[in-house]
Each structure stands twice: as C-alpha cells, then as structure tokens.
Amino acid sequence: GFAYGPVFQGLRAAWSRDGEVFAEVSLPESVQKDAASFGLHPALLDSALHAGWFLGSSVEVGGVPFSWSGVSLLASGASAVRVRLARGVDGVLSIVVADLSGALVASVESLAMRALSVEGVSGDAGLTKDALFRLDWVTMPAPGSASASGAPVEEPQRLAVAGEDMFGLTDALREVGAESELASSPSALAAGAASVPGVVLIPVAGDSAADVAGGVHALAHRVLERIQERLSDERFAESRFVFVTRGAVGGQDLAAAAAWGLVRSAQSENPGCFGLVDLDPAGPVTFPLAVLSADEPQLMVRDGSVLAGRLVRQSSADEDMSPEWGGGEGSVLITGGTGGLGAVVARHLV
User: How far is CA 209 from the centre of its chain?
Assistant: First the structure.
C-alpha cells in the first residue's frame, strides 16, 4: 500500500544470518549534498528500516515504526551507511548504523513496530479524511491496579495544600487515608523546611462577586505567579504543582476555565512540572488518590471516578454536537487569528 519515491529507495544490498540482517544503504546522488544538513537523513534511516523485512514477521503486511527506545546519534552528515538489524523479544528491532569506514553513526536499543493493514493505508477502514476530533474523558485505574502502560499505580509519599483550601482538600485527603500539610503559599511551605513535598495542591477558584472579565484576569494573574514561582525557585525543582479547580471543565467557573488554558500552556513548555484536576461541581468534594498517582497532565473527578482527557475522532453520530453557525450570518471571533493556525481557521470559515 505504500508508494516510495526514488529518494526513499536507498536499500542497495542485504544479507541475513541467524536472526540478523546486514544491509548497505545510500542516498541517491541528487540528494547526497543534503545529508550534511541532518543528524541522520530521514530517507537514509527509512531505507535502512526496509531491510527489516528480511527478518520475517508474523504480521501479514508489515508494520510502521511506532515506539523508539535508547536512541543514540554519534555522528552526522552520512550519505551512505551499513546497518545491522536484529529482532528481539516481542518482535522489537535493535539497530546499529555505521559509516562506510565502520565508525558508528547511530544505535537504537529497541524499535517496536505497529501492524498496519492494507485497509488502513488505502482508506477503506471507515475513517473520514480531515474529520473533526472532540475531547472525550476515559476512566483511570484505581491505586494499586495496573496503569495504561502496565506499570503498577503508585501513591505519592508527601502532599501539601498551598493557599486557601476553599474546597476542603485536606479533609477530603484525610478521608481516603492520606495526610497533607497546609500552608498559606508555596513559599511559606518551603520556608525553613529541609525538603518540600513532591506534590503541592493549589486550589484556585474565580471570585463570584467580581465581574466575569475582572475575575478571569485576577485569577489568571494569581495562577501565573504560582507557575513562575515553581519554575524560578530551586526548592521546588522536584515538586509538581497541581492546580485544583471545581467546575472549570463544564464552564461553571469561567475564571478557573481560563486558568486551565494558562496551565496547559505551561505544561506544554515544562512537561511534568504542573498538573490540572477539576473536581465535581455537584455534591460533596471527593479527592480519590488515583488523581495523584495517575501520570496524566489533566484529570477531572466525576461521581467519584477519575477521568483523563483523550482526543477521539468525531463520528456521524456526533453531528448534533457540532456548533450552529446561524445559517452563515453573524461574526466569529478567532483569538490568535493572525498566527499560522488561526489564519488557516479564518480561511476555512471564509
């Protein structure tokens, strides 16, 4: 089902021996001058992987690279290489790449391949090209059970609540058997302490007495201060700041919803430093320990269950969820409309 152009047809020769394949791969003369611009030219690496077909596979059609582990790049600019591929446990590949003199260029401890059917390549699998995606929430495993990756879910050792505990997090944690420290701010928590907790919960909520715009601005400033505090204070280098809201995902607290957007930006720039948890706006506050043990950037608690956000393809059954544009009348505001993605959205709407 794949169609490879001449640049990706670089496999020149291959030999097999006892579960190993040795191959010679080179770029066409027309693109060899481009090799110096890459650590390892992508067409050269792709052509090297073609030799893996000679190892044999239980997959009917083959597979595509899916998960890389232990990748090392030791030299750059190669236009021709020699490759050794070997199949390990569960069909993963180990790869060694050397230049024509025998000097190492790159190595890969394991590369897992994912099966790809002819139907998936040809577009006959019922998927719609350029389809819309929507946010869905999936239930996370409870503490002590296996996580999505198969690893056991661990409970955090030390917890703290920093700031006004307007949701009663300390009591909710105590009800599930976890103790937490309480401080007026992260700085107060760290003052004079030999170490700080690994997880710092920061409750945030909009001021119901303020106007909507003013409340959004005020809360965004407070959250930004906490983000900057986490990144600038070395005492929190090993701590994860988890911002806790109530009703931000459903729009009950618009200021907290804006804070979610701000923290999401910080998460993308600083992976692992920040977390988001939205508590159930209905009923008493519950805080399951799975919230703290799940390796997820954004979670919400509903009816006692912990849910994580996932993007799913929107099907025809979801069409009633599409926004109403008023028959082509009216105006649409696109924030960031002068950027690359915003410009594409604006052009699409026009």
Answer: 36
Q: Using only C-alpha atoms, what is the Rg of the chain?
A: 26
Averages of pLDDT over each 10 residues, the chain, 350 residues: 81 92 94 92 93 67 79 94 89 91 94 73 56 86 50 60 92 87 87 83 88 91 96 92 94 93 94 94 87 86 91 73 65 82 88
Residue 75 CA: distances (Å) to CA of 80, 166, 280, 294: 13, 56, 53, 38
Query: What CA–CA distance (Å, rounded) separates 172 from 176?
Result: 7
Q: Which two tokens stand for residue 44?
A: 């050269």
For residue 278, which of 31, 296, 265 has the smallest C-alpha distance?
A: 296
Q: Which two tokens stand for residue 282?
A: 């209905």
Residue in this structure with the two tokens 């719609």, named with its chain if needed: 128
Structure-token pair, residue 173: 């944690």
- Alpha-carbon distance of 30 to 293, in angstroms, equals 52
Q: Which tokens go with 131? A: 């389809």
Contact 159, 178 (CB under 8 A): yes
For the entire predicted model, the pTM comes to 0.59
Decide the pairing of beta strands 199-203 and 274-279. unpaired
Nearest Cα to Cα of residue 45 among 63, 27, 66: 27
Residue 288 pLDDT: 87
CB 303 within 8 A of CB 282: no
Burial level of 239, CB count in 10 A (0-12/13-18/19+)?
buried
The whole-number pLDDT of residue 144 equals 52
Say what the pLDDT of residue 321 is.
62
> Whole-angstrom distance between the N-terminal and C-terminal Cα of the chain?
36
Q: Residue 329 has what pLDDT?
A: 72
Its sign, for the CA torsion 33, 34, 39, 44, is negative
Residue 342, token pair as written in the block: 């915003």
CB of 206 closer than 8 Å to CB of 164: no
**How many residues are recorded in the chain?**
350
In this structure, the number of other CB atoms found within 10 A of the CB of residue 346 comes to 13
Question: What residues pair up with 96 in beta bridges, in sequence order?
Answer: 84, 107
| Three-class SS of 277-307 | EEECCCCCCCCCCHHHHCCCCEEEEECCEEE
